[in-house]
Amino acid sequence: MVNYDRLWETMKKANVSQYRLIKYYGVSAGQIGRLKKNMYVSTHTIDMLCNILQCNVEDVMEVKLDPDNYYHQG
User: Fold this and answer.
1) At what angle do helices 5-14 and 43-53 cross, to 10 degrees?
2) What is the phi/psi pair of residue 71, to 5°?
3) N or C: more exposed end of the chain, with fewer CB within 10 A?
4) What is the Cα–Cα distance from 19 to 42, expressed in whole angstroms?
5) 37 vs 49: CA distance, rounded Å
6) What are the structural domains of the chain?
7) Out of 24-28, 38-42, 45-49, 67-71, which region has the weakest mean confidence (pLDDT)?
8) Does pLDDT of 15 surpass 70?
9) Kind and range of the H or E run holding 63
């Protein structure tokens, strides 16, 4: 499961609001909504957030493994 809790913490530390992402950096309100719901977003969006916030991917998101939802090889 993808989780974006780290994004909100990183934004707070960088003093970047959701409004600023939308108004000044062109992030769509739809993407913000998807991030709030821990839904999947494109790697382009992750790359854009990392560049805006000057941070690494792990400062924006984490993947929490769900043992009931994994793929078997073979």
Assistant:
1) 30
2) -105, 135
3) C
4) 20
5) 16
6) 2-63 (1.10.260.40)
7) 67-71
8) yes
9) strand 62-63
Amino acid (1-letter code) at residue 71: Y
Kindly indicate the confidence band of residue 74, based on its pLDDT and cuts at 50, 70 and 90. low
φ, ψ of residue 36 in degrees (nearest 5): -60, -30
The residue assigned the tokens 């974006």 is: 4
- What is the structure's pLDDT at 68? 74
Nearest to 28 by CA among 45, 7, 51: 45
CB 15 within 8 A of CB 9: no
Tens-place pLDDT, residues 52-66: 999 999 999 999 887
Looking at this protein, which amino acid is placed at residue 63?
V
Residue 34 pLDDT class (50, 70, 90 cuts): very high
